[in-house]
Amino acid sequence: MFPEGFKPGLSTLNILYEARNNDWSIEAIVSRVTWPDGQGAVWELIFPDIEEVRGLVPASESGLPKNVPMEALTGQTIRVKVKGIDKENNLAACSRVEVVAEAKERLLKTLVEGEKLDALVRAVLARPSRLVLDIGGGVLVVVPREKAAYNRALPLNAQYNPGSLIKAQVEKIDRQEGIIEVAPINPWEKADFRRGDFISGKVIRVYGKRHVLVEVPPGITGLAPYPLRKTINQGDQVTCKVMAFNKAKKILHLQWGDYRAAGNRKRRQMG
């Protein structure tokens, strides 16, 4: 008998049994990619609030495009369906294939060419250089560098960060073949800065003690020299001063500006 007002919840394993029996998809995190006994790659999953149970997803059930390796999603959140449960060993056999297929079917019915949408950067891959975008429900679209790069001089991993949300446009829909092609919308088209502007941004790369790459709205990157009197780390939020901006050539040069000193100078000029 439970205390008055107490509502017993499902045990952790029962949650997985409920998901399996009702064909529900559940959230999981790819905690590890391993190759057991030299065989094919397998995802090991952890489930939120179900610490003692691990999920396993073989490559054949990953739902990934052929040119996206399993390790590209390490540490990322995905949705899977539970296909089997090993109660003794606290293991759950899972699949992402149906989740992706259902989402792709919905997208093929609703998307139209020319439509703009939000896309999540899942990975930036090399050899060949390419961008992996999640356009909804785990449906991944691989975009080659020639379509993804908005700055030819910078590597893709300096232009995009996994986990960031960008705007993309649907370029092709083939409902018969199940093909969806998208391309990122060039953020430089909406950029408008003037020399002397102060802008906030995020440090996305530090090149030793020489240069710092800063991402500023609407998603473009500018180059600043490494500051002489302070330490800068990747991920820092910073304030910079615009020294040069050229939209056509995709150039944004920044300097570490003291907006308080600038404000004092302006007030003196006005006074």
Characteristic key phrases:
OB fold (Dihydrolipoamide Acetyltransferase, E2P), mainly beta, nucleic acid binding, NA-bd_OB-fold, 271 residues, RNA binding S1
Description:
The chain has four helices and 15 strands. It starts with 11 loop residues before the first helix and ends with a helix. A hairpin with a 4-residue loop joins strand 6 (116-125) and strand 7 (130-134). The strands form three sheets. It has a five-stranded mixed β-barrel with strand order 1-2-3-5-4. The protein has a five-stranded antiparallel beta sheet with strand order 8-7-6-9-10. Strands 13-12-11-14-15 form a five-stranded antiparallel beta sheet, with no helix packed on it. With 271 residues, it is mainly β. The longest helix is centred in the middle third of the chain and has 14 residues, at 97-110. Residues 261-270 have low confidence and may be disordered. It folds into three domains: 10-97, Beta Barrel (OB fold (Dihydrolipoamide Acetyltransferase, E2P)); 110-184, Nucleic acid-binding proteins (OB fold (Dihydrolipoamide Acetyltransferase, E2P)); 195-254, OB fold (Dihydrolipoamide Acetyltransferase, E2P) (Beta Barrel).
**Overall mean pLDDT score?**
89
CATH architecture of the largest domain: Beta Barrel
Q: What amount of the residues lies in strands?
A: 35-45%
Radius of gyration: 24 Å
The largest beta-sheet arranges its strands as 1-2-3-5-4
Q: Please tally the β strands and state the result.
A: 15
The percentage helix is 10-25%
CATH topology of the largest domain: OB fold (Dihydrolipoamide Acetyltransferase, E2P)
Oligomer, anyone?
A: single chain
Structural class: mainly beta
- State the fourth-level CATH superfamily of the largest domain: Nucleic acid-binding proteins
In whole angstroms, the N-to-C terminal distance is 80 Å
Task: Tally the structural domains.
Answer: 3
Which shape, going by the Cα principal axes?
Answer: globular
Number of helices: 4
